[in-house]
Design goal:
The protein is α/β, with parallel strands linked by helices. It has one domain: Peptidyl-tRNA hydrolase (Rossmann fold, 3-Layer(aba) Sandwich), CATH 3.40.50. The protein has 6 helices and 7 strands; from the N terminus they run βαβββαββαβααα. A 7-stranded mixed beta sheet has the order 2-3-4-1-5-7-6, with helices on both faces. β3 and β4 form a beta hairpin. α2 runs parallel beside α3. The chain is globular, with a radius of gyration of 15 Å. The chain starts with a strand and ends with a helix.
Length: 189
Amino acid sequence: MKLIVGLGNPGSKYHNTRHNVGYMILDEFAKKHHLSFKLDTKFNGEITTLNKGSEKIIYLKPTTYMNLSGEAIIKVMKYYDIDLDDVLVFVDDINLDVGRLRLRALGGHGGHNGLRNIIGLCHSDEFKRVRVGVGLNSKLPLDHYVLSQFSKEDMITISIAIDKSIQIIEQFIDGVSFIDIMTTFNTQT
């Protein structure tokens, strides 16, 4: 069993904001595979599932707000007995240019409060993550920037990153080693 997580904030006012790029990826994946997310309060998140052969894949958009994302992830992991090694998290990253992907099998939070919460609650930084570049605008306060919508130009670039992220999910659930996935996608610009 695998768990694919897209980080973001719930509610229409956060739709298509930079902080919600994880949600955007899972929404596009769901659309491609004719899935729909349903709110499940016991997990503090929107959930959908897809079976790949005999393996169940769970897709989660935590509704705890970004900084408490780990709470929803832990609930799903415990309920379904999912190992941390079988978790893949998609998260925004202001330190990467818009649309740039950086895949890691482990690592720190890099100042991202959602990742900080996951690492703290899992007592480990050894989980797979895809950081999706959303850029940085030094003229705006950080909280305003990450909660701002993408420009039309940036949206084109982000759409390409979302397509690549869907490919990453598909390879991950097909059992391609994460090292091979990292080699493929970390070398792309």
